[in-house]
Specification:
Elements lengths: L15 H17 L9 E6 L5 H12 L3 E5 L8 E2 L12 E2 H11 L2 E5 L7 H4 L3 H10 L3 E3 L6 H15 L6 E6 L9 H12 L3 E5 L8 H14 L2 E5 L2 H5 L4 E5 L10 H8 L9 H4 L6 E3 L12 H4 L6 H20 L1
Parallel strand pairs: 1-2, 1-5, 3-4, 5-6, 7-8, 7-10, 8-9, 10-11
The protein binds phosphoric acid mono(formamide)ester.
Phosphoric acid mono(formamide)ester (CP) binds next to helix 2.
Amino acid sequence: MPLPRRSFLTTQDFTRRELEVILATAASQKKSGWKALKSKPKLALLFFNPSLRTRSSFELAAFQLGGHATTLQPGKDAWPMEVREGVPMDGEAEEHVKDAARVLGRFFDAVCVRCFPKFQDWATDRQDAMLHAVARYAGVPVVNMETIVHPCQELALALTMKEKMKKTDGKKFLLTWTFHPKGLNTAVANSAALISTKMGMNLTILRPPGYDLDPMFMDQARENARANGGSVEVTDSIEKGYAGADFVYCKSWGNLAYFGKWEEEKKVREPYRHFIVDAEKMRRTNDAWVSHCLPMRRNVKMTDEVADSKKCLIIDEAENRLHGQRAMLTHILG
Ligand code: CP
């Protein structure tokens, strides 16, 4: 079933059936290879933040589909960009996103954007202004390479779970917060909540008190669970969280009440170093698979013992970034 040409901003814009089509294409391309697209897709990759996996896998996917990717880092090798409307541009920004996006839309078949929150004010950052501005002005499909969600990581995670568990429906998916020396973006945690519930799983979020995800994403996860036969639970009990889990996904994220004030948050975060994923906790599970999106600080988020065990899927999931994105591009640009 071909999908219509469109943007890939969040998996919430796609039905489960449509996501399953992309995942089936990814699995088939991974097993049997892929064909270049007649359209030879040309991608602009706008990286406002660093990357290892996303940049490599998108550049490679464009090449494998017979196309080309141009990587631009606004503020580094491309002009710093303004996103606010109607302001006098007398600060750092040399050009407005409405001009830059329209130019890129004339050159390229798709514009892909990585733009993390600015970590000043969550009420502002949760609007995801840069991504939506590029989508508004580019005139071509836009792909989210991580903003306040990370839908491409969701594809890789879903593909990895399907490879290992076959059926995801009814399985217990534990999303566990882990310690990190800095307050981090909530994007991957939001995304893990969205894709696990979309895949019919029973989501348990294990986090210290105060580390709740934005209600907007919790509502979406609950709606996904209702539609796909799963459930959503939140706990601060490590014992309860790990008990009977089939899949453990770990991630650190910042406390939204201290958003951007990470030095202040430090004293709140410090008592929770013991949320690290270790072998003792994994023994409470249903012989669960475990993964993380990477990059991952070993022996802070996950012990070496778990990370190097046969149940750990961090490298498989990272590889599946390429297969998931190539399949997604095949559908939205093919
Ligand atoms: N997981 C992920 O997006 O990795 P990068 O930040 O290296 O792209």
